[in-house]
Amino acid sequence: MITIEDYRRVAPPGAVDIVLRLAERMRGRRFLHLSGGRFGGGAAEILQPLVPMLTDLGVDAAWEITGGDPGFYATTTALRAALGGAERLLTDEALDHYVEMNRLNAKKLALEADLVLVHDVQPATLVGHRPAQGRWVWRCHFDCSRPSRRAWTFLRPYVNQFDAAIFSLPKFARRLGIPKYVIAPSIDPLSEKNRELSSREVTQILRALGVAQDKPFLLQVGPFTPAEDPLGVVNAYRLVRKYYNVRLVLAGTVDSERESVETLAELREAAQHDPDIVLLELPPDAHLQINALQRAATIVVQKSVDEGFGLGAAEAMWKGKPVVGGSAGGLPQQIIYDVTGYTVHSVEGAAFRLRHLLNNPELIARMGAAGREHVRRSFLITRHLTDYMALLIHLTR
Amino acid sequence: MTMEPFRFIGCVELRQALDHRATDERELLDRLEDVPAGSIFYHTHGYFLRHRPITTAYGNDFASWVASQVRDQVLAERLAVINPFEFATLEDLREELMSSVHDHLIRLSTVPRVEFGEAFYFQQSHIVEVPLGPAATTLAEFRDALAAVDTSAIYFHMVEARARLGRRSGDFAEWIRNSLGLPALAERIERIDAYMTSLERVRARVLALVDSALEGAAA
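ok -> structure tokens follow
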């Protein structure tokens, strides 16, 4: 089992000592997380390692999830999309049912704690049933700055019942009547997705994926959706290909949304005519494969045009790779321009920066090293743990 | 002279988003006037805690934003050169920042604004103090603890203590002068220029001065 002491070899010097000191002050206090599920990305991905770490540190940490019927899940999925700015049909009946299901959840769950962190949309209305004691904080993991009016009108009165809210970036927040804290998400450097791999392991995994290592390759990891702009990456690669004998690997997941299916069809078409475009359709839990691909890549691309925080850039930088990324979401916060990579605004910009890096291999190594150091100081789970414990101490003093 | 042990204190910076933002230099000027003093502190002194390990390009968030998002190099240079450690109060610092933006704007016919970049989002911070390690009672113990302590402790004792807590000499110099009775060493530490460098370099400079004092005492 991984313990906090294991992070000493990856975290900045002194960071684990700060964690241990904060934990001493939190002993005896209950820290409850409420989320919509235990699996998948977003809140669940970070809570999986974080809650056991808190327990290991002697904090009375707990993680409860809300449940419901298919109608509950359909409504919360639609509400989440609408809060992210998409148009969705949200009827009064469906929203009433969501609130009612959480009334039943409130009866089943032990909600007493010194600090309750409510993650995202599914458990949000539980705040209407908060006990008299304890501080409640809404942790919003997505960009909530441009919600559909209907969705925000519904949720805002609930959000204002919290003592505070946390957003990943200031620009993701809406005007609220409560304090808004800013805590960036993080990666777990000891997880399957980010742990060290030997070159033999990398070679074996790439062989199993059918990715040859006979030439440099550019990599983008992410869902095959227009938001991630994989077609733009193909166009940038084609501009680079005129000058450099490189391969493009696009690794991602597919969902059943029409736009995603159409994007994938176009990517398949492109790959059919160019053997150096490798399309890998991976399951959501292909963490080790993504780890190996990022370690083997020459440069990692994250050319999103619509993005949340987008931790893929931090994952790649942790593996010592420069990142050429879009300017959306949290990418400008992760990629320090001209230091750890480049943010770009167009296909041409991506191609130009990829050529620039391929033409200056010493830059690839230098930016890769700077990127790893930047992630070590700003985006590791130890920093995230520190921020949460400091927040608890700040709010309950 | 009273002998008090030195206790290193690290810190965690909790960031709070404010409902103020700027998309052009006029709005930057207006918001600079409105925001709490804590926000001025966060975007100037706080910059040292967040950015320095990688880059020392601008010196504060305002200059960084004007350079990278508005792309106005002239104002960026004028803001970057403002050394927050030179000002006795945050209100004096606010005044200097505002007058730099104002002087720049009156020479222009149009207000430079963000075209393709991001708005400036004003924030402030709450510092949670974290006592670290055993207390030092001698210069040698102080030296060993300083070499190993988290960089946030360098920030707390050299920046936070001076700028926000009113201990103008900084905690290291104050303790060395008052508890160890070494005014010459204290003065040299007090003179370390923390502007436009990293917390690690500040640590290295304090260590070099302490090592030199320890060698002198042993000789």
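Chain B has two domains: 6-11+126-218, 17-124.
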